[in-house]
């Protein structure tokens, strides 16, 4: 799995660069407040950092796209253990991911979509760093203001493995090249 994500990301970006003049290439930029939750010896650990997320995608047809994602840490957050502030900070330093995006047009300019893929996340909690890869999934909607510009919102689970979850709601803008 560790080798799979970079290979798919490179393939997606290569396909996107070759297809740069095609109508299917798009980009998105958004703000993502995250919720990091874990369980250590039965005690809940939480933090709410935020990231900025960029997506480059290519529409294969009207109902399916492929995407690559890069998300970078914007703000760290206090770590709470058992509901109490621990004095430590957590940050999602970065995430990379690849997704398939099935979508359906449900009205004039409105589409709903799902995302399914994999994300590799790098976290910093206090002086400790960790990286891991997990299946990622989510649902969202886009409203196309015109043929090139859209506003987007989605809710994603970026990591759900080994009693650790990383979820977030993103709002952003999209541009179709």
Could you explain how this protein is built, in words?
With 177 residues, the protein is mainly beta. It has one helix and ten strands. Strands 1, 2, 3, 4, 5, 6, 7, 8, 9 and 10 form a ten-stranded antiparallel beta sheet that branches. Strand 8 (128-144) and strand 9 form a beta hairpin. The longest helix is centred in the first third of the chain and has 15 residues, at 4-18. The chain is elongated and about 50 Å long.
Structural key phrases:
177 residues; mainly beta; 1 helix; 10-stranded antiparallel sheet; 10 strands
Continuous helix count: 1
Which structural class should the secondary elements be placed in? mainly beta
% residues in beta strands = over 45%
The main pleated sheet reads as: 10 strands, antiparallel
Proportion of residues in helical segments? under 10%
Order of helices and strands: HEEEEEEEEEE
| Low-pLDDT segments | none
Give the distance, in angstroms, between the N- and C-terminal Cα atoms.
31 Å
Shape summary: elongated
Query: Would you count the extended β strands for me?
Result: 10
Our Rg estimate from Cα atoms comes to: 17 Å
Write down the oligomeric state.
Answer: single chain
Average pLDDT across residues? 90
């Amino acid at each position: 799995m560790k080798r799979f994500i970079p290979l798919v990301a490179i393939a997606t970006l290569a396909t996107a660069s070759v297809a740069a003049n095609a109508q299917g290439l798009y980009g998105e930029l958004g703000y993502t407040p995250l919720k990091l939750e874990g369980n250590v010896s039965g005690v809940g650990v939480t933090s709410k950092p935020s990231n900025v997320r960029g997506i480059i995608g290519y529409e294969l047809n009207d109902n399916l796209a492929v995407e690559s994602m890069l998300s970078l840490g914007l703000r760290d957050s206090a770590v709470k253990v058992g509901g109490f502030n621990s004095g430590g900070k957590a940050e999602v330093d970065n995430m990379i991911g690849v997704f398939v995006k099935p979508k359906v047009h449900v009205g004039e300019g409105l589409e709903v979509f799902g995302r399914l893929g994999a994300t590799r996340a790098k976290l910093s909690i206090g002086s400790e760093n960790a990286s891991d890869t997990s299946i990622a999934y989510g649902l969202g909607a886009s409203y196309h203001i015109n043929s090139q510009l859209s506003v987007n919102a989605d809710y994603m689970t970026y990591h759900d493995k080994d009693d650790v979850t990383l979820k977030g709601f993103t709002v952003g803008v999209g541009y179709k090249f």
